[in-house]
Amino acid sequence: MKKEKMEQANYLQQLKEWIDLKREFDIIDLFTRLHPADIADLIDNLKEGEKILLFALLDVEKASDVILELSDVSREQILEDISDKKLTEIVEEMESDDAADLIADLPEEQAKTVLEGIEPEDSEEVRQLLKYEEDSAGGIMQSELVCVQEGATIRDALQAVIKESESDEIENIYNVFVVNGENRLIGTIPLQRLITAKPNTPVNKCVDEDIPSVNVDVDQEEVARMFEKYDLVSIAVVDDYNRLLGRITVDDVVDVIEEETSEDIYRIAGLDEDDSVFNKPIQSVRKRLPWLYFNLLTAFASVFVIGFFEDTIKMMVVLAVFMPVVAGLGGNAGSQTLVLIVRGMALGELTFENSKKALYKEILVGIANGVCVGIVIGIIAYLWKGIPILGIVLCLAMVLNIFVGTLMGTLIPLGLKWFKMDPALGSHIFVTAFTDAFGFLSFLGLATIFLRLLT
User: Fold this and answer.
1) How many other CB atoms are there within 10 angstroms of residue 346's CB atom?
2) CA gap 266, 282 in Å, rounded
3) How many Cβ atoms sit within 10 Å of the Cβ of residue 12?
4) pLDDT score at 1
5) Residue 423 lies in a domain
6) DSSP-assigned states of every residue in 269-280
């Protein structure tokens, strides 16, 4: 990995020198030796004008691979400059699912021009894919596949694989799909089984019963879970009548996993999934400011609580020193639980059916952690300030707030899921706001009660 990074840095430095010297033939020669993903990494690290210049030097076939590997910012910059003619040629080289994804991000007029420019058959395939929801099985599937009729033999299936391989129409053939006369899926034959079977064997006798299919409307997260559960490299996509529509391959699922993971991380933090470190400042401000305003609104709950106990703080000013400790540890406890719950939901491990077990477990964890931390912080406060009541109040408040933080870290994502919202959507903001407010309420409330009892 270190060696690869050094090579990439050397290539980048060399490219910049060649750009300054206008040595385009040297750049083209370098690109013929590099993988499209490596070329994309190099382009991503250049200035906008340099990106456009280098992309223009790529031949159409390589450009169709490189543009898919670029960051969103680089791709947007290049698409703004590229001609419709060149873009149409690039799209024609792509597999149907990649072409559909790229066209979906284009302005309406440009997308229409590109669709009209590519081959009618390819255009129809892409139009069909664009009808499906972006985050569904239909939205990530590709139309290119190898299928044979149920009456065919293994020899027929092998010939179909060879024919498609020679035509370069289909990449990464993992399975052959068997259908009946109405194009309904009978089953799937892995390539390995196809190679080892006797040539005259009927294909329907070689179908692997353990390989499932997926409905076209299933969410892409569920598709990713199926790949993980059944160790798949490819899966057939069917409609409600079990008619074969396309296939999803493992490289598409890797992209889904990355996308869904990033989306959950962004949403927990209250960020738009389209935000990026390379976005223009004004774009990032527009995407982040609404959540900051919402966070500001929730923060007033804590301000209100503190204001309510203003007299108590005046009586015992030392309370203000420990207030951030109570709120902070409660928030951390809630965040720990929140991450586990959201991850469990994303992986399909946690459902409403088994959520009670998870809730009871987290309650016990919250109580145990609260007691352990509360005793320690209570002793520290007593030894530091020499005030017994402060140690007792701080210990009890810590127990309560860590327990409540853990409880909210479980209930908030479950509640969002119940209302059919993304469990990760701003959950961290809700949990933090609640634990801050409750932490101050419990700490200052207990202090008020104890002070009144002693006076």
Assistant:
1) 20
2) 18
3) 15
4) 53
5) yes
6) TT--TT--TTS-
- pLDDT score recorded for residue 174: 93
- Is the residue at 208 inside a domain? yes
The yes-or-no verdict on residue 3 having pLDDT over 60 is no
The parent domain of residue 51 ranges over 2-132
Whether residues 298 and 417 fall in one domain? yes
List the one residue out of 49, 64, 40 whose CA is nearest residue 19. 49
Buried b (16+ CB within 10 A) or exposed e, 223-261: bbbbbeeeebebbbbbeeebebbbbbbeebbeebbebbe
Per-residue pLDDT of 323-336, as tens digits, reads: 999 989 998 999 89
Distances from the Cα of 286 to the Cα of 76, 276, 282, 289, angstroms: 18, 12, 6, 6
Last residue of a domain, one of 99, 132, 165: 132
Q: Which residues contact 279 (CB under 8 A, 6 or more apart)?
A: 73, 287
Same domain? 120 vs 158: no
Give the pLDDT confidence of 32-53 residue by residue, as tens digits.
Answer: 999 999 999 999 999 999 999 9
Nearest to residue 234, comparing CAs of 171, 150, 169? 171
Q: What is the pLDDT of residues 65-94, one digit of tens each?
A: 999 999 888 999 999 999 999 999 999 999
Q: How far apart are CA 224 and CA 227, in angstroms?
A: 5
Q: For the segment 374-429, what is each residue's pLDDT rounded down to a tens digit?
A: 999 999 999 998 999 999 999 999 999 999 999 999 999 898 888 888 777 768 88
Residue 286 and residue 434 share a domain: yes
Q: Percentage of residues in the chain with pLDDT exceeding 70? A: 96
Domain membership of residue 390 (yes or no) is yes
Confidence of residue 350 (pLDDT cuts 50, 70, 90): confident
In the beta sheet, which residues pair with residue 188? 177
Q: How far is CA 367 from the centre of its chain?
A: 33
The answer to whether residues 159 and 287 belong to one domain is no
Are 207 and 226 within 8 A, CB to CB?
Answer: no
> What 3-state class would DSSP assign to 212?
coil
Total structural domains in the chain? 3
Identify whether the C-beta of residue 437 lies closer than 8 Å to the C-beta of residue 305. yes
pTM of the model: 0.73
Q: Decide if 267 is inside a domain.
A: no
Q: CA-CA distance, 99 to 122, in Å (whole number)?
A: 9
Write the CATH number for 239: 3.10.580.10
Residues 230 and 373 in one domain: no
Query: Rounded to whole angstroms, how far apart are CA atoms 292 and 303?
Result: 16
